[in-house]
Amino acid sequence: MRYKAALFDLDGVIVDTESIYTDFWDDIDRRYPTGVDDFARVIKGNTLARILETYFDEDIRDEILVLLKEQEESMRYTLFDGVSDFLDRLIDKNIPKAIVTSSNDRKMSRLFSQIPELRPKFEAVITDALVERSKPDPQGYLIAAEKLGVDPTDCVVFEDSFAGLEAGRRAGAYVVALATTNPRESLYEKADEVIDSFIGYDIL
After folding, report:
1. Residue 164: pLDDT above 60?
2. Which of 40, 72, 128, 158 would you call most buried, defined as having the most Cβ atoms within 10 angstroms of its Cβ?
3. 13 membership: H or E segment, kind and range
4. Residues 111, 112, 117, 122: what is their CA dihedral angle, to the nearest 10 degrees?
5. 179 and 100 both lie in a single domain
6. What is the CATH number of the domain that holds 144?
7. CA separation for the pair 169, 40 (Å, rounded)
8. What's the average model confidence in pLDDT over 20-24?
């Protein structure tokens, strides 16, 4: 087999939420201007802690947290077409899998309660609680590979954000970009392969 494990980002790869988060952070940037062009896309792949500490004064962080909590509690999670079938094919081939996300455990609990069949498909879930350094640092992917008992260079990483793609490359993995968040032409130099979706896709 070409790869021994598959590591997946969450938003924009497994679940179709990136447009919701883009709208949310665009609105936050209007309320509390950061001065960063295309702010919502710049921060994709970063942990919430890093976003708040880097771009917002301490006195408004709690307000943003409240708004984000309200947003996420009302959010409905939808799997991208082809994801479930692709994961099942990996299961049939005994390929271990992990989610590596900048999201927190609270959000993951809501996700798995809405889509209970998703959690058993993964041997490991790496959230922001397990990492000290946000993407583009490769720490999350290195932890995932270790938990699955494989070398990072034997992994394939599926990502959509620039920060995530860089993290996968820095981990030494084969990196596949999903053209769900950024234009296809912007991804070719950042990944080993670019795909539109998992429909009919089979790398292993």
Report:
1. yes
2. 158
3. none
4. 100
5. yes
6. 3.40.50.1000
7. 23
8. 85
